[in-house]
Amino acid sequence: AQKITQTQPGMFVQEKEAVTLDCTYDTSDPSYGLFWYKQPSSGEMIFLIYQGSYDQQNATEGRYSLNFQKARKSANLVISASQLGDSAMYFCAMREAGGSNYKLTFGKGTLLTVNP
Amino acid sequence: AAGVIQSPRHLIKEKRETATLKCYPIPRHDTVYWYQQGPGQDPQFLISFYEKMQSDKGSIPDRFSAQQFSDYHSELNMSSLELGDSALYFCASSLTGGFDNSPLHFGNGTRLTVT
């Protein structure tokens, strides 16, 4: 079974607008962490934001925020005031405390295109 | 700040040849991970090392092997290369003293093309 599901293969947004990228996850582990990474066309993987399963507040990092709904098992990434440089593939990933050595499992990704 | 260094950036090999990818983790990071990302795919976990000992193994073919050396750098060795091995190979490192919010820091990857 897929542990991380990203249902939006591609998304379009106008420059300066906000966009939400969806991520749902599946785990029976009470302790886990959720991460978002950005992969531009150049290929590198850039860490954006983290949310722990016990965190009471939604994580925020600059223009990135994470809409964490634990009961729904969703961890959507919100990008505010989109910029042309935000065009990239975005991956949601999970780390489970019961897993071996804390590796990350990735979703299939969402390709975001920011239009001028 | 120092990042994860991978070499080479690009590698072209023929079928049945061997390849060695190198990774230098961020100083003081104790865990190294290798991932394979095929075209248009998500990264797939191959193998990891904690303090130079293999700690976890994913979907790594038997033709591949890896190790971490005393200076903490790691190498991924790939033999009998197949066309399907063409992919972007990432090394990542983290400081994992326990389950916490330490992200994996990725290198820029090695793009392997098998012809």
Question: What does it look like?
Answer:
The complex is a heterodimer of chains A (116) and B (115). Chain A has 116 residues and is an all-beta fold. Chain A has no helices and 12 strands. In chain A, strands 2, 5, 6, 10, 11 and 12 form a 6-stranded mixed sheet that branches. In chain A, a hairpin with an 8-residue loop joins strand 10 (88-96) and strand 11 (105-106). The N and C termini of chain A lie far apart (38 Å). The model of chain A has no long low-confidence stretch (mean pLDDT 93). With 115 residues, chain B is mainly beta. Chain B has no helices and 11 strands. Chain B has strands at residues 5-7, 10-13, 19-24, 31-37, 44-50, 53-57, 64-68, 74-78, 87-94, 105-106, 110-114. In chain B, the strands form 2 sheets. In chain B, strands 2, 4, 5, 6, 9, 10 and 11 form a 7-stranded mixed sheet that branches. A 4-stranded antiparallel sheet of chain B has the order 1-3-8-7, with no helix packed on it. Chain B is globular, with a radius of gyration of 14 Å. The interface between A and B is medium-sized, with 25 and 29 residues.
